[in-house]
Amino acid sequence: MTDALATPPGTPPGPPPHSHAATAPGQHLTPDGRVELDPGAFPADSPHANEDLRPIPVAQRHWGTYNFTALWIGMAHNIPSWTLASGLVALGMDWKQAVLTIALANIVVLLPMLLTGHAGPKYGIPFPVLARASFGLRGANLPALLRAAVACGWFGIQTWIGGQGVFVLLDKLLPGSWAGASHLGGQPWPLWVCFGIFWLLQLLIIHRGMETLRRFENWAGPFVFLGALALLVWMADAAGGFGPLLDQPSQLGWGGDFWPVFFPALMGMIGFWSTLSLNIPDFTRFGKGQRAQVWGQSLGLPTTMTAFALLSVLVTSGSQAVYGEPVWEPVDLAARADNTFGLLFALITVLVATISANLAANVVSPAYDLANLAPRFISFRTGALVTGVVGVLIMPWKLIATPELYIYTWLGVVGGLLGTVAGILIADYWLVRGTSLHLAELYRREGRYWYRGGWHPAAVLAFLVGGVLAVGGSHSAPGKGPFPEDGLIPFLKPLADYGWAIGFASSLLVYVVLAGRSGRRAERG
Fold first, then answer.
1. What are residue 192's DSSP bridge partners?
2. Residue 363 in 3-state DSSP?
3. Which of 111, 149, 259, 357 is 20 to 30 A from 284 via CA?
């Protein structure tokens, strides 16, 4: 299968079969359009490579459409995804507006996913190595560590949420109650035990490598979806219908009150997966071809997220009919089951859902990103362990207690910066280089991607411009965050609610202007 067959609508065409990438020294083109590094193409003791960062041999790129679809099903089916629609309804939307917003956001974020994901099956390289082409061999650590910081934060939070879910459900299953257990550090001691076991279980799985993760995701995604459907059937049976929520009108309507809420909400929903739009090559590098990653992601991301949002709304509306109030948290809802089998099934579902999402979304990326920082000393497994430790050191239980600071402020700022990085990566790979890369040079000091001391000034400047425009207007309500009410840079405040889009578009434009001609000449040199 060729790139042309797999290219989604609106995607810039890839290079012809006999592109500069095919004839570059130290690499060769396979009949299906993928590029492989020749043996000994760069020194074996290169300080910029290890076994985890080297290109995956073509023979080992065997993930198919189902693998990528199952990966997204597993990542999308988690507790934060379940509550996305509830947050939008709380802002005044009705269920149709909430589901529409989520669907549109995931269609929008799918495009950069496919564009950055293209380099994975073609070259077999992870995100931090791809970033070397645009930022330089040393400069790539800037976007890599930014992405790693977000992932470590989310890993800790997801692990804490999962541990809380296990604690709540076990409290219902086991004889006696943990409610009266002594407290340690402000939390019941059994909760710490659940958190620790949950943390260890995830690291044991990822320690076995990406193939173990692939096999886990293959069955975890469908299992969690069946668990959510079981929750829906249970609610429908108990409620005799889905309650009044679906009949409630929007508090915003479709006029002037709706759009000021819609656009910031859309950016927030895009930001939910903006992290993966950067490091998706960490997964697509194992793909058997472009068709597998394009169809797998297209079938897995927007459809799954939309269906899951609709499912959460339906189940929650049923809970309103049964309990007299909407129960948005799936763990709290499952804890109300009145039989042991239901609680046990819910416990397993929460475990599988949180682990499948957390490992794929929040451990794989920082493992590679940290390995890129010091390839000789940090392997993929070492990076994963560091991620786990940092995820605890940030004290996620405190971050969860202050959502205004973390979820709405810090992640909002980081989302704008990640959009900026995505704009640079796509501009460099598609618009400047036409998807042609010199693989060996990505690992070689003083090569074409060394630029100035390992940094590419055009990428750094584009990042600074895009970053300032994206987050310079960040503002907080009085007493709700660290930013001034009028914004860090007051005249940029109107842009703050569109951070991801502003950062993406501005950095892409600046990078093309600064690096366009020189980059095309370099790839033809």
1. none
2. coil
3. 149
